[in-house]
Structures are given as C-alpha cells and as structure tokens.
Specification:
Elements lengths: L9 H12 L2 H8 L6 H29 L3 H9 L1 H34 L3 H18 L5 H24 L14 H14 L5 H4 L5 H30 L4 H7 L4 H29 L5 H18 L6 H25 L11 H17 L9 H23 L1
Helix pairs in contact: 1-7, 1-10, 1-12, 2-10, 3-8, 3-10, 3-14, 4-5, 4-14, 5-6, 5-11, 5-12, 5-13, 6-12, 6-13, 7-10, 7-12, 8-14, 12-13, 14-15, 14-16, 15-16
C-alpha cells in the first residue's frame, strides 16, 4: 500500500490564495484610503503590498522548504515553548479574523436583501464548515468553480464602479497620511504571515508554489482594495451593501459576498486548527477548525466589529518582528534550529524590542509606513546579537 502524501500543485495553491484575496475585508480596508485620491491611494496600495508580499514569500518559502506548518517554523527561531506562545497568539487572531469576516459578510448580505444579518452569519458559517470538512487537498474542483465565479463577478463590479454612471467626487480628507495608507495596505498580507506555510508545506514545488501564492494574492488583493477605494471616490459609498446595490447587483452581489467570505474565512479556520496542534499535539486540526468556525459565527451574531484598523495594527506589531527574526535566522545567519530548546531567550527579547518599536513607530509619520523600518531594525539587532554571541564564545 502506498503511503505517499498527496501534494498540492502550483495551480491549486494559486486558487487558494485567489480566494484569500477576494475578500469583503479587503474592499472595506480599501475604502479607508479614498481620501488620498486615486493616484496616491493606488501608489500606497501597491507599495504596501510589495512590502507585505516580500514578507509573505519569505515566510512561505521557509515552510515549503522545511515542510513545516507556519507555527512549527516559528519554533525553529524561538524554541518549543516560544513557538507555542506565538501559536496561541495566532489562534487568537484567527478566531478574531473568522468572526470579523463572518460579521462583514453577514452585514453585506443582509444589506443587499434586507434580511437579518444573523441569518446570513449562520448561513456563511455553515458553508465554511462544509469547506473545512472537505479539506484543503480535496477542494480542487469546487474551488475552481467558486473562484471562476468570483473572478467574473469581481470584474463586473470593478467595471461598474470605475466605468459606470456613478457620481464622481472627491472624498473629504480624513487625516489619513500616505504612510498610514501604506501601513493599512501592508496589514492584509502581513495578517497571512502566520498562515502561508500551512499551505506551502504541502506543495509539490515549494518555491514555485510560494511565488505563485504571493503573486496571485497580491494582484487580487490590490484589485479588491482598488474596488473599495474607487467605490468611495466614484459613488460616494463606503458601505459594502450600498456599493453592491449602486452597482445594480442582486443575486450576483450576494454570491460575491457569501463565497468570498467563505473562501477567505475557511483559510483562517483551517490554519487555526493547524496552529493549535503546535500548542497541543493531541488536538485534531479539523475539529479545532470546526470549533473556531462555530465560535466565530456566534461572535459575529453577538458583537459589533465595524472598525478593524486597531486589530490590523496589533497583528502587525506582533508578527512583523517575528518574521523579521525568522528571516535573519534562516536566510542570513543560517543558524541551526532552536526547536529542541524550550525557549530562545535572545530572540524573544529581540522580538519584544521589535514589538515595542512598532508601537512607537506608529506615532511617527513615515512615507513607507512603520512595518518595513521595524523589520529592518529587528533584523539589524539580530545580526548584532549574533556577532556578540560569537565573540563571547570565541
């Protein structure tokens, strides 16, 4: 009997990350950038996604080459229990994302059909459970159909927003600077850093699959941001349901909302299950994913989650210095793995410095945002610390 593990193709990885990019949350975040105007807003979106995409590629490549999940690769730099600490933080952020995505999707679906959002939250949650039960390696055909439909509908929505008869206008300035807009654009790809290796670890060709994943996600995410920003500029609407209605979408709008929410949120729930195993090895990935979906659905029914900017910044402050340390360890210093140790105290202290630096940099208006400077600073501290350790051991 063959025990060969079924591997994922470049195409299937591309489909997975296409689904991640087609997201109501991406459109909603794009609406925040409208006050910059089309040209400056687009420049901020592209720059932010280039920065975030490079980090995604590094994280995915580490997982692909080592065939480890995202949180297992973290243990290579922070030790067994250090990795568990980040796994716990990741599970918490994924529960949060699951709830936020279902909440946004249910509001938009309810707005289109004037129904109770809670009903749509339950419908979306049930569909996510179907995706979870099918499993990541068996989603090929259903994902192809869903992604094809979403792609066509997204193109139609883009055309209506930018080439329709909406009332063009210049949104009122809201104080958002170019650097803050870049940071909001970095935030979405940054939020996928603790997840991407959960998929590239199963790829037939890790480097190619990682590149395909990042490029596909980056292009689609930029497209979604642009739809959100353009909708505010050209229709004067920032509410997703109102944007859909102004675009003349009925059933088509509902399909975009429901299936984009399902295909994106499935990744959050699935990776929450994968990360949970890094905390307690006896846990079952699929059962945890089911539990996270149920918790997220209940939370979406009970709590308001309209402004996610602070949540995005919190994710950045936790995971930007984390991946910076992994990049330094794996690609620059090429240090042996620390996963056999309980903690890598030096790296944990460096992460804490990077976390504090990120929060302080949030008060400084930098054209490139604060993620990139924070990562450069963190990597520099890693290199200095490594040199000091070598001198001490000599």
């Amino acid at each position: 009997m063959s025990t060969e593990i079924k591997k994922t193709s470049n195409f299937s990885n591309g489909l997975i990350w296409f689904g991640a990019g087609v997201s109501i949350a991406e459109i909603q975040t794009g609406t925040y950038l409208a006050s910059l105007g089309l040209s400056k807003g687009l420049a901020a979106i592209v720059l932010g996604h280039i920065i975030g995409g490079l980090m995604m590629f590094a994280a995915g490549l580490i997982g692909g080459r080592t065939e480890k999940s995202a949180m297992e690769t973290v243990k290579m730099s922070f030790g067994e229990n250090g990795g568990r600490f980040f796994s716990l933080l990741n599970v918490l952020q994924l529960v949060g994302w699951t709830a936020i995505m279902i909440y946004d999707g249910s509001l938009a679906a309810g707005g289109i059909f004037s129904n109770q959002p809670r009903i749509w939250a339950i419908v979306i949650g049930a569909l996510i459970l179907v995706w979870v039960m099918i499993g990541i390696t068996n989603l090929g055909r259903i994902n192809t159909v869903a992604m094809s439909a979403l792609f066509i509908l997204s193109i139609i929505m883009f055309r209506v927003v930018f080439f329709g008869s909406g009332a063009a206008g210049t949104p009122e300035p809201d104080g958002l600077t170019f650097g803050a807009a870049v940071e909001l654009s970095v935030a979405m790809p940054l939020s996928w850093l603790p997840l991407i290796s959960d998929y590239t670890r199963e790829a037939e060709k890790p480097a190619q699959a990682t590149a395909v994943s990042v490029v596909v996600y980056g292009i689609v995410s930029i497209f979604m941001y642009l739809i959100g920003m353009g909708a505010v500029i050209y229709t004067g609407e920032s509410n997703i349901a109102s944007i859909m209605l102004k675009a003349g979408f009925g059933v088509a709008g509902l399909l975009i909302v429901v299936f984009s929410t399902v295909t994106t949120t499935f990744l959050d729930a699935y990776s929450a299950g994968v990360s949970s195993v890094s905390i307690f090895s006896k846990l079952n990935e699929k059962r945890v994913a089911v539990a996270v979906t149920i918790i997220g659905t209940v939370a979406a029914c009970l709590f308001p989650m309209d402004d996610i900017t602070n949540f995005l910044y919190l994710i950045g402050s936790v995971f930007a210095p984390m991946i910076a340390i992994q990049i330094a360890d794996y690609f620059i210093l090429r240090r042996p793995s620390s996963e056999s140790a309980s903690f890598n105290a030096v790296n944990l202290v460096i992460w804490l410095i990077g976390f504090i630096a990120y929060r302080l940099l949030m008060k400084v208006d930098l054209v490139c945002g604060n993620t990139l400077p924070d990562m450069i600073l963190t990597i520099a501290i890693c290199l200095i610390a490594a040199r000091l350790v070598r001198k001490e051991q000599a």
